[in-house]
Recover the amino acids of this structure.
């Protein structure tokens, strides 16, 4: 199976390129006030070799916008996110680049305890799906920290009729001879089983350390579905509180493009067919991993 290359980090990369102060709405702020930066970033990822680019609407959930006093911006942000991605794709000479809709954690990343109750969560995810489905090639539920969160997002996404990929975020704590667990403490294997029963098309590990992602990949591959990884390059995510800003998180200095590409080669050999990068990875990381996989005959 040919390797599908995802793009890399969006939010952190936009923060580094933007002239605006960091807020809890980070990527949404840039979409509203500096959309040309978003378009350029998507274009850079396409030029680096990404086959799939993801809408920059991660922070534009109904719950986050309501919390920050911006509920009326939902529709305009969703539209702006698609416009930026579509413009970048249209400008590119590469053909076949797909746009992934973004179904993020509704309230906070990595925090299973903040997931709304079922009816609210599915209603919010349906709003996101309705806003994105007509212009997307696939649905990407990402950074799901618990089985509940993944199930709610996937349920709404599957109603679109588009392929649904689900990315689970796992604990960065590696315990020898112990099964891999989500950030909720639940077993990754149990999450995989439930996602298979729902009928999703791919299971991924995302926004976890490369080391933890490598360990969790086995459970995803065991599903028999297309599996993948797009890891982050944070030192730790423990400092990020709900409503906080990404300024509280620090980048690992040992995960430049070359080191990250080495992990990508390992993931491919272990059975991953969908590979990209998450927070604190850049177009340079995607270009290097694409080159490395091709050089090794793993593309």
């Amino acid at each position: 199976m040919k390797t599908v290359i995802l793009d890399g980090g969006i939010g952190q990369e936009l923060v580094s390129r933007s002239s605006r102060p960091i807020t809890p709405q980070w990527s949404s702020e840039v979409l509203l006030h500096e959309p040309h930066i978003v378009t350029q970033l998507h274009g850079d990822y396409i030029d680096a070799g990404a086959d799939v680019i993801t809408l920059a609407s991660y922070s534009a959930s109904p719950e986050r916008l309501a919390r920050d006093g911006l509920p009326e911006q939902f529709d305009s942000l969703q539209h702006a996110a698609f416009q930026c991605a579509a413009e970048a794709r249209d400008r590119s000479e590469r053909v076949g680049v797909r746009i992934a809709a973004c179904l993020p954690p509704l309230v906070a990343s990595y925090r299973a305890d903040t997931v709304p109750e079922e009816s609210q969560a599915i209603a919010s995810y349906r709003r996101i799906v309705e806003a994105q489905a007509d212009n997307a090639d696939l649905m990407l539920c990402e950074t799901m920290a618990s089985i509940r969160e993944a199930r709610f997002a996937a349920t709404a996404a599957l109603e679109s009729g588009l392929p649904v990929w689900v990315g689970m975020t796992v604990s960065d704590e590696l315990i020898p001879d112990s099964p891999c667990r989500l950030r909720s403490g639940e077993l990754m294997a149990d999450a995989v089983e439930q996602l298979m029963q729902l009928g999703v098309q791919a299971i991924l590990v995302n926004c976890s350390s490369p080391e933890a992602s490598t360990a969790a990949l086995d459970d995803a591959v065991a599903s028999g579905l297309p599996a993948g990884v797009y890891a982050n390059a944070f030192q730790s995510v423990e400092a990020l509180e709900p409503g906080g800003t990404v300024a509280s998180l620090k980048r690992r200095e040992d995960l430049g493009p070359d080191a990250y590409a080495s992990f990508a080669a390992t993931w491919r050999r272990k059975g991953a067919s969908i590979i990209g990068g998450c927070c604190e990875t850049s177009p340079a990381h995607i270009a290097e991993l694409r080159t490395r996989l091709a050089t090794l005959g793993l593309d």
